[in-house]
């Protein structure tokens, strides 16, 4: 990926000596405004390549910063969206119309106003001054409050993603201050020289800073350093996040850099610009403009972006052209688009490309399906095998690969503009979205209807969730979601749980990135800097002690700093290392094959595969898969192969249980599914055993409740309860139990009753097997 830049031969702004104040801001992706010390406001039209003078400002106004009022999401033409704030060295800011008319000038600071920024919904404006003050203003320019006051100039400010905090510079320090007065301020030393520019991205919540120490840095919003650049030759004078938070640009003297969100540099340009004082991306993220110290405005767009899938490599060679290369035979196809490419995605045998006006879907390279888009700012494309999801400023839309709109989930407080691939996930049947207003919550939707799943209750985790991913295979009733939380723990849970509280089980820790395989429910992730493959993560629901035995941990010594999983297609995992280089790691095909055998109940084939592969982790997977499918014979053999005596006993015992129903219930108990086991016993009419399950777990109230409801074994519960209390030298205090206590309990009578239920079960089972053997002889 690199920047393709363009610069006019002559600067349109009139250069004095060296400009310090020159700034830029986009109105649309094709139109930019710039203004500088020459008092001119210029408009740049990229379609016609024309530059026109909008207005010459009064002589006393030397502009310092320019920021357009935010476009209201989903509403295109709105009069109020057509103003911008212009700050100036005389201590004022000016609300200025698109025609260049100053609607209002406000005395704001002593000395120059150095920065002015609208918040995300345009309800507030923040200004920062040479006088060290930071002030908040209403939309119409009324002073709301002075947020901070310090001894040194504030060079740069940025709003937090929810417009509830601001970030600003204070010499070598960075400060995050919440608007709410009582909330905690975060302050830290960030650079070894005065900090000149900051930016904060609303999608990834990451902070950029750059300054006179000639470095740029990436921080999380708690002030933890994520990346520090090498020292440049000149101060870093500007930086700016692309709106989707995937890349950012950095400006310095005769220097323009394009960087990945993790900090490493894609490309370096050395244009003849002087210092780049201000950088701005168009809302669709396709264009970058820089205001240069020599009076020029530099334009750039990103090219040579790559997408890979199986044997295809696709490259954006120009703004409207892609090259498709088949690496098997080196065949090359060119794809041409009418408009600029904004986003693309390649997976599941389809290429989806969003341009500024249309969506193209390719299955082969010569006949794309094309349909029009409502908003021209697609910020995210996700693909599943059956359909894909487009996200733009206004919402989320599921489309079939035939171009039919399938659904469009909505929820209260929806902000589609801040969703990214970590906070949304798509499978054939489900859409999952991490809720921004409460990051512990994951909203789940049916992909076909767009309605909330089940009873509409979202999934709630105990910690804030950073990343989510739905598995891609198997029936929708078994759909699972993996999540990484704030503590970097990895959890797995089901998404369709039929009203029961879902079990959220931990399957890993120190996990930094993850991806599901496209063809089997195998998960890979970076755990403690090592590539870990969870061959059968769902085993945690049947026998969690098997989980560690089903992992494949690849030695991480080959990876450099902080690798990220990009995808996991077939047997190939693609990783991006901390320095930006790609590495590939391959996973054996056997686990995927084993999944296939298990889904189609081909247990003989599964056993043969495990014998052949001689891999303990495969045997462990098979044991788990067989248990989950109540396939006792296979489970026994698999457990034996990995020397698991603990489970062997249970499997063996379970197979001894007289009836199928009770062995099923025991299997459920073994895997910790108590409620399910109880339900299975009750369904089979094995009331005593259902009660005993609860007695064994000291679920006294439930045991009594069952006994009372089924009018049997009340004395059994009371007898066990009495024994339990005696053991701990305690007296009965529970009202329910006192109510039912009825003097002396007869253990002999109880034993007899228990024996009766058990023998009845054996007899019934015997009758069944006699019947079936008679039937088979006929
Ligand atoms: C997903 O949808 C595709 C296309 O309809 C289908 O071929 C595939 O079997 C589905 N996968 C699952 C796991 O349901
Ligand atoms: C088993 O069969 C015998 C004889 O046919 C019958 O008397 C008995 O009730 C049956 N028991 C059960 C539990 O079905």
TrEMBL record:
Subcellular location: Cell projection, Cilium
Stretches assigned to the IFT80/172/WDR35 TPR domain: 618-763
Annotated SUPFAM superfamilies: WD40 repeat-like
Residue span(s) of domain IFT80 second beta-propeller: 304-590
GO biological process, one term: cilium assembly
WD repeat residue numbers: 106-138, 188-220
Signal peptide bounds: none
Keywords: Cell projection, Cilium, WD repeat
GO CC aspect terms: centrosome; cilium; intraciliary transport particle B
Pfam family, one: WD40
Entry annotated with the keyword Translocase: no
Protein name per UniProt: Intraflagellar transport 80 homolog (Chlamydomonas)
Originating gene: IFT80
